[in-house]
């Protein structure tokens, strides 16, 4: 559905992966490569690898990775960060165009009412499909997923998330509430059915693709059609052998900008810990560093200057705290490791 994201869940072997393949191939039949791009995240390296041949047609990836099907957990985290940047960029474009959603925006773009020389561009739908979400959730802050599902559908970014059991330790009720479309396969218990659908019923399904679809308006029992591996191979190779684009569709670069860092021999021994402190508190303040590490004003100021040179905090703003450029600990550790 164009207005929501989809949560898919149920016991192992009941049809979740088959449904993902049905959804992908249906969209391949329906949409031109210019209209839709897929971000495929598959930590198990099994289910979605068949679509890698569509790299020049339907797939999107981050610039820093050679993976067209995301299998590495850290690449998955960077992909989420990049999608958040893409979402924010698209909201700016919608604001400038004075429209409410990506569909209205693309209509105006096709009518040549938006000028590419002013940064406007056609916005293909981006469908993010995540299989085995649990394997990623163990390492990734849920905030990344929450930011996307909260409002990304308005700018044409949609999430299809598959997880065996959406328990609170990997998917909070707040995040789950942004998935109004739910598809449940057979579950092991009534409690697991309630986790997915907020009601019983999935535990009584017969298996083999028998499922319950529920959204804000209705609850429907349905049978997911079967698609074989050979059929997927035929479809993907038929498309892959056609003329594609010269390059894979690229998501925004989320890497922190490169800054010249002071020589490591001159760097204060507290540099890394001070960086973690200001990022954690999102406050570039010498007094914060003084209080935390029990050091004098001059040393704290030198630390702030080194953090500025490293691109972690901004310049002095009078009596105000410096701006902190790094927003999360993962990005900071990536930057520190690059030094």
What percent of residues adopt helix (DSSP H or I)? Answer: 25-40%
Task: Tell me the β content.
Answer: 5-15%
Distance between the termini: 45 Å
Count of distinct strands: 10
Strand order in the largest sheet: 4-2-5-6-1-7-8-9
Which of globular, elongated, flat, extended, rod-shaped describes the shape?
Answer: globular
User: Counting H and I runs of at least 4 residues, what is the number of helices?
Assistant: 12
Q: Can you give a write-up of this model?
A:
It is a single chain. The protein is of the alpha/beta class and 339 residues long. A hairpin with a 4-residue loop joins strand 8 and strand 9. The chain is 38% helix and 13% strand. The strands form 2 sheets. It has an 8-stranded mixed β-sheet with strand order 4-2-5-6-1-7-8-9, with helices on both faces. The protein is built from 12 helices and 10 strands. The protein starts with 5 loop residues before the first strand and ends with a helix.
Q: Can you summarize this structure?
A:
The protein has helices at residues 16-30, 73-97, 102-110, 133-137, 142-151, 173-176, 190-197, 229-240, 271-281, 286-293, 297-309, 329-338; strands at 6-9, 36-41, 60-61, 69-70, 125-130, 157-163, 181-184, 210-214, 219-223, 249-250. It is built from twelve helices and ten strands.
List its salient traits.
alpha/beta, 8-stranded mixed beta sheet, two-stranded parallel ribbon, 12 helices, 10 strands, 38% helix, 13% strand
Task: Give the arrangement of secondary structure elements.
Elements (H helix, E strand, L loop, with lengths): L5 E4 L6 H15 L5 E6 L18 E2 L7 E2 L2 H25 L4 H9 L14 E6 L2 H5 L4 H10 L5 E7 L9 H4 L4 E4 L5 H8 L12 E5 L4 E5 L5 H12 L8 E2 L20 H11 L4 H8 L3 H13 L19 H10 L1
Parallel strand pairs: 1-6, 1-7, 2-4, 2-5, 3-10, 5-6
Antiparallel strand pairs: 7-8, 8-9
């Amino acid at each position: 559905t164009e207005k929501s994201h989809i949560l898919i869940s149920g016991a192992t072997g009941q049809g979740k992966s088959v449904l993902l393949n049905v959804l992908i191939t249906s969209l391949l039949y329906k949409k031109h490569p210019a209209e839709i791009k897929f971000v495929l995240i598959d930590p198990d390296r099994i289910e979605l690898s068949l679509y890698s041949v569509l790299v020049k047609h339907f797939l999107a990836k981050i610039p820093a990775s050679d993976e067209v099907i995301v299998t590495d957990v850290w690449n998955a985290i960077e992909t989420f960060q990049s999608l958040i940047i893409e979402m924010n960029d698209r909201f700016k474009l919608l604001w400038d165009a004075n429209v409410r959603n990506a569909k209205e925006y693309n209509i105006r773009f096709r009518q040549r009412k938006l000028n590419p020389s002013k940064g406007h561009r056609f916005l293909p739908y981006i469908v993010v499909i995540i299989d085995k979400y649990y394997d990623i959730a163990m390492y990734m802050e849920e905030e990344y997923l929450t930011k996307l599902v909260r409002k990304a559908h308005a700018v044409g970014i949609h999430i299809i998330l598959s997880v065996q059991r959406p328990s609170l330790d990997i998917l909070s009720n707040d995040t789950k509430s942004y998935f109004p479309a739910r598809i449940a396969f057979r579950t092991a218990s009534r409690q697991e059915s309630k986790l997915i659908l907020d009601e019983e019923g999935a535990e009584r399904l017969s298996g083999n693709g028998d499922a319950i679809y529920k959204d804000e308006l209705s609850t429907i029992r349905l049978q997911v059609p079967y698609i074989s591996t050979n059929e997927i191979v035929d479809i993907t190779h038929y498309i892959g052998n056609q003329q594609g684009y010269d390059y894979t569709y690229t998501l925004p670069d989320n890497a922190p900008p490169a800054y010249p860092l002071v020589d490591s021999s001159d760097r204060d021994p507290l540099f890394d810990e001070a960086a973690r402190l200001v990022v954690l508190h999102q406050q570039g303040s010498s007094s914060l560093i003084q209080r935390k590490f029990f050091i004098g004003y001059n040393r704290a100021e030198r630390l702030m200057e080194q953090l500025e040179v490293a691109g972690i905090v901004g310049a002095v703003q009078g009596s105000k705290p410096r701006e902190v450029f790094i927003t999360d600990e993962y990005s900071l550790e990536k930057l520190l490791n690059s030094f």
